[in-house]
């Protein structure tokens, strides 16, 4: 069975966030589109968008909120190096909700004053907050 599974590791500048063996598939939103990687897939390196990474097992699925970074897959090991990443049980819902509200306020302000840089930063902050909140809504 081991040759039909893959190992998944997610690291951030703060350290390891996720490390599991025997996954059957990993589903990622890359800058080039959505991909699913199974054991024995050809090597891949891809940039990641802000989204949930889904790690599938025979008996279920884990999800991790990943905020950018990249994935490297080879020899049945998927290594994700992310700007930040959180497991659903580690997400502070109140803090994520506050971040969402602040980002929405910044977006409104940036549109009022036509500040493209502020708008871009606020849109990224909003995507991050929504990504985190989406994993807590089960």
UniProtKB/TrEMBL annotation:
Compartments where located: Cell membrane
Molecular-function GO terms, alphabetical: ATP binding; proton-transporting ATP synthase activity, rotational mechanism
Key word Transport present: yes
Keyword tags: ATP synthesis, Cell membrane, CF(1), Hydrogen ion transport, Ion transport, Membrane, Transport
CDD domains: F1-ATPase_delta
Principal place of residence: membrane
Annotated Gene Ontology cellular component terms: plasma membrane; proton-transporting ATP synthase complex
Domain ATP synthase F1 complex delta/epsilon subunit N-terminal per the UniProt entry, residue ranges: 6-85
UniProt cross-references to SUPFAM superfamilies, sorted A to Z: Epsilon subunit of F1F0-ATP synthase C-terminal domain, Epsilon subunit of F1F0-ATP synthase N-terminal domain
Subunit record text: F-type ATPases have 2 components, CF(1) - the catalytic core - and CF(0) - the membrane proton channel. CF(1) has five subunits: alpha(3), beta(3), gamma(1), delta(1), epsilon(1). CF(0) has three main subunits: a, b and c.
Assigned protein family: Belongs to the ATPase epsilon chain family.
Record PANTHER family: ATP SYNTHASE DELTA/EPSILON CHAIN (PTHR13822), ATP SYNTHASE EPSILON CHAIN, CHLOROPLASTIC (PTHR13822:SF10)
Protein name as catalogued: ATP synthase epsilon chain
């Amino acid at each position: 069975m081991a040759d039909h599974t893959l190992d998944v590791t997610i690291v951030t500048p703060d350290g390891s966030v996720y490390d599991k063996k025997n996954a059957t598939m990993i589903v990622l939103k890359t800058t080039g589109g959505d991909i699913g990687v199974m054991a024995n897939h050809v090597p891949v390196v891809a940039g990641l968008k802000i989204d949930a990474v889904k790690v599938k097992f025979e008996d279920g699925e884990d999800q991790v909120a990943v905020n950018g970074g990249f994935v490297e897959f080879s020899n049945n090991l998927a290594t994700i190096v992310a700007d930040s990443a959180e497991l659903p049980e580690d997400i502070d819902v109140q803090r994520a909700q506050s971040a969402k509200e602040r980002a929405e306020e910044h977006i409104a302000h940036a549109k009022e004053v036509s500040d493209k840089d502020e708008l871009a930063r606020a849109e990224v902050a909003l995507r991050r907050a929504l990504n985190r909140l989406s994993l807590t809504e089960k």
